[in-house]
Every structure is written in structure tokens, then in C-alpha cells.
């Protein structure tokens, strides 16, 4: 317990012994974490946009005019019992024309030349998210097309395929950029800790002379790195909150980071600070052991 208290006290005192250097380190780390936070904010909003687009993926099943009641009942049962179908709404041709008129609004006069209703009876089929891939939608559309009474099935084959490619590309870019920003942040943290080590060289040498082990020397610096990481994350989180609030006033669709993500962001900063300290100390202590 006494060793733990000593380590915590020394870690906190290290921040106070060189306040200007500590503030500079926190500021540099905070800016690096802010860049990472912007990337995270973009990722959250990109995912929200993709989910919003995916929610609009539906299958339209157009029925033949001479469809029999038994065929209609069989198709309705198939759609409602299929594991990939979330809802199946039957839309009679008269209701479809009425909805079409509402969508036209001021241009409803374009339909005045119609002598009869050209729209067929339709099923509007909404799918669960895990059934909105190109392969699964194509499979279901082919099954429906082969059923009696079905005239045509539409679901935007090219559009769905393009959406899936965009999602894959976005995820890959997301992972790549995330790795680049995280590695860059780690280097920033490691370099700021190196500056601290240079500034505290005399103190480390003094600890070495009185017989301090490598672990005793390392732990306070690791605690200091963790504290700097937390403070830098809090600084970056504050800047992100201000940025999100500003953007939300201009673009209402912008989604802020959730509380859980902000907590994870601060935890990541603490881990990054501690790991950066370990990485910087490792080389220094190895040189020390060879002396």
C-alpha cells in the first residue's frame, strides 16, 4: 500500500515540478487526441448516415391483374412468415394511385389525362438489416418472382450493390485512418514523455545513485503519463463538445458522441499516455542498465 501511495504521489508531483513542460505536453497530446476525436465523430455520423440509407432499402412486389385469391393469400403468407421480412404491406392499386397523387402535390394535373389506373396491386416489403445485402435480397427477390401471381419484383439491384460497396469502402477507410491516427497519437505521447525524461535526467540519476530499481523509477512516470492522457482527453473532449454543438446548430443531422463513447475516449487517452510512457522509458532504462 505504501509503495502504491508513493507512486501515485510521485506521479502527481511530477506534474507540478515542471508545470510549463506538463502543460505543453498535455496541450500537444490534447491536440492529437482532438484529431482522433474528430475522426471518431466522423465515423459515428458516417455510420448513422449508412444506417439511415439502409433503412430505406425495400422490395416492391407488383402483382398480375388476373391474380387469384388463393395465389394472393399464398404470397401474403410467404412474405409474413419469411425470416428476413420485417413487414409486408399490401397496397391495392387505388390506394397506390391516391398516394401517388399526394406525392405529386401541385403537379397532380399531370394525372388528369389518365383514363384508367395504370398502377398494379403491390406488396411493399421491408427487410431486417441483416437481409439487406446484395446476395440475400437477390435470393429473396428470385424466390418471390417465381411465385404464382407475381408480375415483377423491384428493389434497386444496382443501387443496393453500390451501397454495399460504399459500406465496405467506408469500413476499410475507417479502420485504416483510425490506425494511422492512433499510431500518430502514440508517437506524440512518446515524444512528449521523452522531453519529460530529458528535463528530469538529474532526478533520475539521483534515484539511481540511492539504489532505486528500474521499476521504482518507471512507475511514477507511467502514472504521470496516464494523468496527462486523461487531462489531454478531457481537453480534447471539451473541444469536441464545442465543435459538435457548433455544427449541430448549422447541420441538425449531426450526431454527438454518446456518453459511453466519451468515457471510452478518456480511457483510451489514459491507456495511450501510460503506454507512451512505457515505450519512452524502455529505451532510456535499457541504456541505463548498460552503464
Number of helices: 9
Question: Averaging pLDDT over every residue, what do you get?
Answer: 76
Largest sheet: 4 strands, antiparallel
Q: Strand tally, please?
A: 4
State the order of secondary-structure elements, H for helix, E for strand. HHEHEHEHEHHHH
Terminus-to-terminus distance: 32 Å
Computed Rg: 31 Å
How many distinct folded domains? 2
**Global outline:** elongated
Structural description of this entry:
72% of the residues lie in helices and 8% in strands. The protein contains nine helices and four strands. The longest helix has 43 residues, at 157-199. The mean pLDDT is 76.
Summary tags:
alpha+beta, 4 strands, 291 residues, four-stranded antiparallel sheet, 8% strand
Short description:
This protein is of the alpha+beta class.
Secondary-structure blueprint of this entry?
Elements: H1 2-17, H2 19-54, E1 58-63, H3 69-81, E2 85-91, H4 93-104, E3 122-127, H5 134-145, E4 150-154, H6 157-199, H7 201-209, H8 214-250, H9 259-290
Antiparallel strand pairs: 1-3, 1-4, 2-3
Helix pairs in contact: 1-8, 2-6, 2-8, 6-9, 8-9
Amino acid at each position: 500500500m505504501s509503495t502504491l501511495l508513493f507512486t501515485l504521489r510521485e506521479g502527481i508531483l511530477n506534474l507540478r515540478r515542471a508545470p510549463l513542460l506538463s502543460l505543453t505536453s498535455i496541450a500537444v497530446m490534447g491536440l492529437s487526441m482532438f484529431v482522433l476525436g474528430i475522426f471518431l465523430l466522423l465515423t459515428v455520423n458516417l455510420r448513422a448516415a449508412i444506417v439511415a440509407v439502409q433503412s430505406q432499402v425495400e422490395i416492391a412486389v407488383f402483382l398480375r391483374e388476373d391474380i387469384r385469391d388463393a395465389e394472393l393469400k399464398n404470397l401474403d403468407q410467404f412474405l409474413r412468415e419469411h425470416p428476413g421480412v420485417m413487414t409486408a404491406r399490401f397496397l391495392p392499386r387505388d390506394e397506390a394511385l391516391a398516394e401517388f397523387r399526394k406525392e405529386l402535390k401541385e403537379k397532380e394535373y399531370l394525372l388528369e389525362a389518365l383514363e384508367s389506373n395504370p398502377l398494379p396491386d403491390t406488396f411493399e416489403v421491408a427487410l431486417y438489416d441483416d437481409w439487406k445485402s446484395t446476395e440475400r435480397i437477390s435470393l429473396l427477390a428470385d424466390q418471390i418472382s417465381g411465385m404464382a401471381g407475381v408480375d415483377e419484383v423491384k428493389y434497386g439491384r444496382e443501387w443496393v450493390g453500390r451501397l454495399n460497396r460504399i459500406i465496405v469502402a467506408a469500413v476499410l477507410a475507417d479502420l485504416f485512418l483510425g490506425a494511422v491516427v492512433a499510431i500518430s497519437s502514440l508517437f506524440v505521447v512518446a515524444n512528449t514523455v521523452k522531453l519529460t525524461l530529458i528535463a528530469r535526467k538529474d532526478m533520475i540519476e539521483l534515484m539511481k545513485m540511492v539504489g532505486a530499481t528500474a521499476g521504482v523509477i518507471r512507475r511514477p512516470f507511467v502514472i504521470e503519463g496516464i494523468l496527462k492522457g486523461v487531462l489531454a482527453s478531457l481537453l480534447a473532449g471539451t473541444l469536441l463538445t464545442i465543435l459538435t454543438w457548433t455544427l449541430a446548430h448549422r447541420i441538425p443531422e449531426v450526431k454527438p458522441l454518446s456518453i459511453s463513447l466519451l468515457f471510452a475516449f478518456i480511457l483510451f487517452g489514459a491507456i495511450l499516455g501510460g503506454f507512451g510512457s512505457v515505450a519512452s522509458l524502455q529505451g532510456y532504462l535499457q541504456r541505463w542498465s548498460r552503464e
